[in-house]
Amino acid sequence: MESVEKTEKIAALLEEKFGAKRDAKARWDVAVVVAAEYLPNAVEFLKNDPDIRMDMLVDIAGIDYLTYPNHEGPRFAVSYAFKSTVNQGCRLRLKVLVGEDCPKVPTLTGFYDSADWLEREVYDQFGIVFTGHPDLRRLLNHVEFVGHPLRKDYPAQKRQWLSTNDFLLPELEKRLEKLGYRIVQRSKEVLPNDDEFLEGSIRE
Amino acid sequence: MIVLDPNGEKLNLMPLNVGPTHPATHHCIRLLAALDGETIVAGVSEIGYMHRGFEKMVERGTWQQVIPYTDRLNYCSAMMNNIAFCRAVENMFGVEIPERCKVLRVIVNELSRINDHFICVAAAFQDLGGTTPFMYAFNPREEIMCIWEKLTGARLTNSFARIGGLYRDTYDGFEREVLAALDSTEKALKDLHACLDRNRIFLDRTVGIGKISKEHAISHGWTGPCLRACGVASDLRKDEPYYDYETYDWEVVVGTQGDANDRLQVRLAEIEESVKIVRQALKRLTPGPVDIVDPRIRVPAHKLAYQDMEGLIGRFKSVYEGIRVPEGEYYSASECANGELGFTIVSDGSGHPYRIKVRSPSLNHVAAFSEIVEGLTLADSMATLPGLNMIAGELDR
Amino acid sequence: MGNVAEKPNIITTSLDFLVNWGRTNSLWPFPYGTACCAIEFMSTEVGRYDLSRIGSEYVRFTPRQSDVLLVAGTISYKQAPILKRMYEQMAEPRWVIAMGACASSGGFYDCYCTVPGIDHIIPVDVYIGGCPSRPEAFFDAMFDLQKKIKDESYMKQRAERVKEQLEMIKAKTAEAKAEAQEFAREKISLAKDFVVEKEQELVKKAQFWKE
After folding, report:
1. Fewer CB within 10 Å, N- or C-terminus of chain B?
2. CB of C184 less than 8 A from some CB of A
3. Each residue's pLDDT tens digit, A184-197
4. Per-residue pLDDT tens digits of chain A, which is 204 residues long
């Protein structure tokens, strides 16, 4: 039970340093609510403090509180689960509350590599924008998808056809440029074929 | 496309699309690679081809109805996912399951792990062109499948665990058949090692291929056998023990280099450890109940429904309204075949889950894939992918 | 040609028999396996069940060398265009088996991202139930498919195809003829217009000089 005491201590430190609040909903594990603008600082502290060393970002989960009974406050929340591979068994969740009118959270891609795809997934499913993310695209749904399916007001059976294959060449060029290559001549782009459109697909 | 490399030299790269319809990518991940000759200079990967809306679907049913969906996350070891989910909900209720149930869950867990690792190694061989080990690995697997069939009624997607217990107790002769399956598992392991350990072609294609450093792997959120292959002794069964895993005599298997060969060897060694655990667990299997007695959580036995009023009401309520999980949020993680399978659960106190987010180990492994294949040849990238054991149901959910 | 095939005789029926015998016993599947059913298909291939018994010796991973498209697993909207393209790449004769509940009807994933049955995209010959379907069920489907193939008449199909082609050629020729005529007519009218214009110009010039 050392790890539980330790996480309690970390939570107290976060409360003291970053004005975080204990999440009353987390009754079985330790979770603290941080303001979005303090998130990078808090994560930097968690990752680099020699006693804490939360070196793994395990999961990012978006939550939509639209139909939650007796809920007050912002509509969305993003829950970050951290874990330490040094202090084994040490876990902590950070939660950021996000309003519907301006769903923006600073990105954690600078701290953890795993944040890249996890944040893309939350963006895809909830429409929460991670400011500073290098490549914020949809991850699971296709390019022509309109709306964000895991929001509570998205009807579960509203289907959206994809007319043709999605196209990755711009991302490849971006990746090449990131590795220090400079593109002189673009490859001949293979444009989507008009005959390939499926029945029921929306063309714009 | 023509590019200038960092030294200012002109290169003619060819963008090549690999997958999703490629035998090694299992129709579920797409890699677009810029090739210089045969070497991959840069790559980007795309997933989501098997996204089937687990998280939206589970919000529409009761808590018990989530269990069949969890089967289809990592379908190579379906029951492990059931157990991980049931464990999370049981933790929220704060109940302790009976001793026999715990031991049975350990046995089922470890046999599933054996199954999963066998498929991974077999598929890796198949992708490298070796058909014989594929046949070797499937023999014990079929035997375990036969046990599943007798135990649960299904071969692959079993839905065996229930919140607060198991679907049913074992049948007569269960122990004997498990022991026989373990024997053939060991025989198959021997055969696989004979195929693998000194096979020049296999070693040339996997040793030193697809390397990843310890720090990089942790930063990418790798868990399970893939992280242990990099030399990090991190196993939730030891770190945050549940179901008395710490009392069994077994070792955490750790690799040294973090290359494709290590990932497969770690899996094979883990099968051995699992065999050890199952043998010990079989000895601990004592008669007793497998379900907890609590009509709030576990449906009362069928015969009670015909005999007294409370049993009938309990059964009616738990089927129609579903069990009511206490209000709150919780993240629970279990060590599954591929790594840490986590469930972020939000409950609003009603009979339906408000939100369940799955933390799938495969997603983090595949996220690093396009990075670790940069600098390798195209054929090597196909030797790297099966070692990550990408399972589409878990990757895209 | 058409008349011969429409009335079956001993030559066409024995030829049909021979062709169908060959086709039924060498069905090479192309496993389009995305999910759980693919794992059951792997079990079908190996040791205990052994798919090679019924002549499906090779599992080909290219649509160009296979006869049966075996869709095993959920097809999402993101995957649908790819599946369609795969089907179109296969050479005739081709058959499709929808393995499992997901491929047949979408299964219990009734949701924003899954196609409710692959028959929305491509034609299906045999459906298999089960989630996932057992290897025995898969064999049953293969036998059903073999029966279906045995009922097909190669000669009849060929005659129909030839007829279709003939009609197509006729239609194309007629089209081309009409086009050519149209073109010629246009040219002639253009030339006429040109001549008329020139004449008018000349007349105008003559008038100008007269004045």
Report:
1. N
2. no
3. 777 765 555 555 55
4. 567 778 888 878 878 887 778 887 888 888 888 888 888 888 888 888 888 888 889 999 999 888 888 888 888 999 999 888 887 778 888 889 888 888 888 998 888 888 989 999 999 889 899 888 888 888 888 888 888 888 888 888 888 877 777 778 878 888 888 888 888 777 765 555 555 555 444 443
Question: Token digits for C160?
Answer: 């129909």
> Is the alpha carbon torsion for B327, B330, B335, B338 positive or negative?
positive
From chain A, the residues in CB contact with C112 under 8 A are 149, 154-160
Of the candidates B3, B46, B234, the beta carbon closest to that of A176 is on B3
| B134: nearest CB among C36, C46, C48 | C46
Residue C112 to residue A196, Cβ atoms within 8 A: no
Kindly state whether residue A172 falls inside one of the protein's structural domains: no
Q: Using the beta-carbon criterion (under 8 Å), do B50 and C76 form an inter-chain contact? A: yes
Beta-bridge partner residues of B356: B345
CATH architecture under which domain C2-152 falls:
3-Layer(aba) Sandwich (3.40)
How many residues are recorded in chain B? 397
Q: Which domain holds residue A114?
A: 2-139
Contact across the interface for B393 and C112, Cβ inside 8 Å: no
- Which pTM was predicted? 0.86
- Six-digit token pair at C192? 């006429």
Range of the domain at B384: 54-396
Number of domains in chain A: 1
Question: Which CATH number goes with the domain that contains B329?
Answer: 1.10.645.10
Residue-wise pLDDT for B188-239, tens only, equals 999 888 888 888 888 888 888 888 888 889 999 899 899 999 888 888 888 8
Q: Which chains does B contact via 3+ CB–CB distances below 8 A? A: A, C
Inside any domain, residue B5 = no
Query: Which residue type sits at B91?
Result: N
Contacts of A31 in chain B (CB under 8 A): 329
Q: Is B1 within a domain?
A: no
Task: Report the pLDDT averaged over residues B275-304.
Answer: 85
- Contact criterion met (CB below 8 Å) for B342 and B333: yes
Identify any residues that bridge with A185 across adjacent strands, giving them in sequence order.
Answer: B2
Q: Could you state, in order of their start, the residue ranges of all structural domains in chain C?
A: 2-152
Report how far residue B227's alpha carbon sits from residue B235's, in angstroms, rounded to the nearest whole number.
9
Domain tally for chain B? 1
Give a yes or no: residue A51 inside a domain: yes
Residue of C33, C109, C131 lying closest to B157 (CB–CB)? C131
CATH number of the domain where residue A47 is located: 3.30.460.80
